[in-house]
Amino acid sequence: MDTDYEKLGSFYLGTELDPATKSPRGPVMYDARDLTTHAVCLGMTGSGKTGLCLALIEEALIDGVPVIAIDPKGDLANLALTFPELRPADFAPWVDPATAQREGVTVEQLSASTAQRWREGLEASGQSPDRIARLRSAAEVAIYTPGSEAGIPVSLLRSFRAPPAALADDAEAWRDRVEAAASGLLSLIGVAADPLRSREHVLLSQLLEGAWREGRDIELAALIQQVVKPPFTQVGAFDLETFFPAKDRTELALQLNTLIASPSFAAWTRGEPLEIANLLFTRDGKPRAAVMSIAHLSDAERMFFVTLLLQEIVSWMRTQQGTSSLRAIVFMDEVMGYLPPTAMPPSKKPMLTLLKQARAFGVGMVVATQNPVDLDYKALSNAGTWLLGRLQTERDKARVLEGLEGASAATGHAFDRNAMETLLAGLAPRQFVMNNVHDPQPTVLQSRFALSYLAGPLTRAQIVKLGKPAPRASAPAPAANGVGSSTRPVVPSGLPELFMGTGSLAPALVGVAKVHYSLAKADVDVWTDVTVVAPLTPESAGDFWENAAVVDRSTVASASSTAPDAATFAAVPHALNAKTIDKLDDGLASFIFRSGTLSLRSVPSLGLVSRPNEAEEAFRARLAMALREARDAAVAKLKSKYQPKLDALASKHRTALDRVERERSQARSTTADSAISVGASVLGAIFGGRRSSIGRAASAARSVSKTLGQRGDVARAEESAAKLETDLRELEAELEAETAAVRAT
After folding, report:
1. Phi and psi dihedrals of 584, rounded to 5?
2. Rounded CA gap, 441 and 686, in Å?
3. Looking at the domain 9-81+140-156+272-470, which fold is it?
4. Which of 303, 398, 417, 737 has a CA that sits 20 to 30 A from residue 407's CA?
5. Which sign, positive or negative, has the C-alpha torsion 173, 517, 322, 608?
6. Longest Cα pair distance anywhere in the chain, in angstroms?
7. What separation in angstroms does the CA of 481 have from each of 485, 498, 508, 651?
């Protein structure tokens, strides 16, 4: 394999073709940072669109860039089918038995021919099976199946999680998050709600915002109950009953309740939460291709999921620092219906936000479809790269050309419609026109062979066969204290009493405090709520907080002031009395001071410190991004160091080549003059006088001597040009070596 394909920050997409002859020119190396201006891939069935898109994703993963891929058809799950050994047995479970039957061969024979075809295809595109192994080691592929347990299930309808606190200061982002959640939920029950005019949308938005402003997640069941009895009586200028009568609210609640009553509802409540940082990276910081397989969902369910996913990406994105490096890719196949030209489905607004704002955060949006008519090309004017394959109808071509023309006008680039139309008309399968605003002109390319086996859309059974990671271990439940009396113990006056659970109850102290952590050199200045629980026994005395533990606030959230029926109670220690409770606050403060540490991860060489309460996966993701930025900066510094030398040598080389051409031209002219002189002297010797013949012979001799001199000039010019070319290649090799060294560190 040509190691040039592994250039730092470059994606090997295929081979450049001469537009007229379709003869190969060399590899197409796509600058990863160009993808921050987004990309569009269009092509009819059989154009090779899926193969090119998978190649793009593979290149990103090899380069350490994580990908979230939304897969409405099932094709993108093919990313999990990577076989470095290329053995027929590897392909056997995935080839189509119906294809074998049509071709009159066994499954084993079809597997063998498929393995051979993949080996030959990789070789033809300058790749080896080692590159498949490189892909597998560089990233993990995970197949998520919301609403199903075939792959990794995704928990969406258990609760609507409150947005991160950082989002509360961004009014637009907060509003978009609330709007997307309400729109997505209403789309599940078939209500096409206008956020500004629909009372259903306004009511749900008010309920969600009320909970989220208090930092509370809200369960779907609780949300449905609040639809019937909202915690407010006024909506805008009207009272609640005038705006949305109780009868109509009950009808909406019944519609939403069908979600809970549906047998398929349980699949939406189990699985991993929709945490973008966890989708992008594994726990140990390895980049991931998170394939969101939604082929099994209904249209309404797909719209609901895509809307929430895109809005989660927007929310996560806005908590990241800006960068010019490519941080992550969001890819959506078959985007038709999610970004239409006139309608405004719930998915469109977060997608527009990504297309307009994601560049500043290093997030590249890539959309693909085989139906180029049903696209909002005004929105896609933000896309800097267009990958155009064979198109089915003249109407499709005309629509694409209009879109390209608008995109070019938006970026201030000239657009030759006739030339582009000619290029599109001459495309064969796996051939594409790449129109990149960062390149001087469009490029015709043949896509490289995919490293993944393109088996076509995977079925539910095949996704199950791929397997999934083991679920994360749950925390063990605390042991119960089974001793006690049915008589409720007396608690010292002034100490609030709450109850949790039923059956045998044991006493414990619960303390809640606000703790301030401040460390200037780590840029830490944060207040956090701490909840402490200290179990009590009859022997407890002195420091009641000695055996305390810090717990999550939700652990005691269900506590009630009402004692449960038929409960038994363990004794409260005698040492806890009116005198000692006055010292509980001091004891709690002392315990928190001793044990309330704030652990932060750090990488001093990069000046990177984790944020308070930042998950390890999120910090590792930031670390990977910081390393990528440092790498890109180092490469840019190298290029700026070498570019003047390269430009100077290239200029000298061009000058030397011009000189070679001049010397060759003069040599050809002198050779012709010499031939004429010699011919004339021969004729003169035959037909002329002696004196004139001698003169002509002398002139001919001088011409021959001049010709020999010119040939020497040509040789010297060619030698000089060759040396300059060698110097140029050596300098380029030196730059490549230093660039490779940057990657290795």
Report:
1. -65, -40
2. 63
3. Rossmann fold (3.40.50)
4. 303
5. negative
6. 150
7. 12, 17, 11, 86
Structure tokens at 140: 């993990």
Q: How far apart are CA 536 and CA 505, in angstroms?
A: 11
Q: No. of H helices and E strands in the chain?
A: 20, 24
Residues 600, 604, 608, 611, Cα dihedral to 10° = 10
Among 23-37, 144-158, 539-553, 625-639, which stretch is predicted with the lowest mean pLDDT?
Answer: 539-553
**Joined tokens for residue 385:** 């790269």
Helical H segments across 318-390, by residue range? 348-357
Angle between helices 246-261 and 220-228 (to 10 degrees): 160
The SS3 call for residue 360 is helix
Query: pLDDT tens-digit profile of 167-213?
Result: 777 888 888 888 888 888 888 888 877 777 889 999 999 999 988 88
> How many other C-beta atoms lie within 10 A of the C-beta of residue 99?
13
Helix (H) or strand (E) holding 235: strand 234-235
Q: Break the chain into its structural domains and give their ranges.
A: 9-81+140-156+272-470, 159-269, 504-598, 616-744
To the question of pTM greater than 0.85 for the whole model, the response is no
What DSSP designation does 606 have? G
Please say whether the beta carbons of 397 and 373 come within 8 A: no
Q: Identify the DSSP state of 158.
A: S
Per-residue burial over 192-218, b = 16 or more CB atoms within 10 Å of its CB, e = otherwise: ebebeebebbbbbbbbbbebbeeeeeb
- CB atoms near residue 245 (< 10 Å): 12
Phi (first) and psi of residue 166, to 5 degrees: -65, -25
Nearest to 573 by CA among 503, 481, 491: 491
Assess contact for 39 and 82: CB atoms under 8 A.
no
In the chain the first and final C-alpha atoms are separated, in Å, by 23
Whether 377 and 336 have beta carbons less than 8 Å apart is answered as no
Alpha helices (H) in 281-367, listed in sequence order: 299-317, 348-357
pLDDT in tens, 280-335: 998 888 899 999 999 999 998 999 899 999 999 998 898 888 888 899 999 999 99
Answer for the pair 379, 390: CB distance below 8 angstroms, yes or no: no
Long-range CB pairs of 88-92 (<8 Å, 24+ gap) are 88/112, 88/114, 88/115, 90/115, 91/115, 91/118, 91/453
Residues composing the chain: 745
Listed residue (402, 353, 361, 414) closest to 382, CA to CA: 353
Q: What is the DSSP string of 403-442?
A: HHHHHHHHHT----HHHHHHHHHTPPTTEEEEEETTSSS-
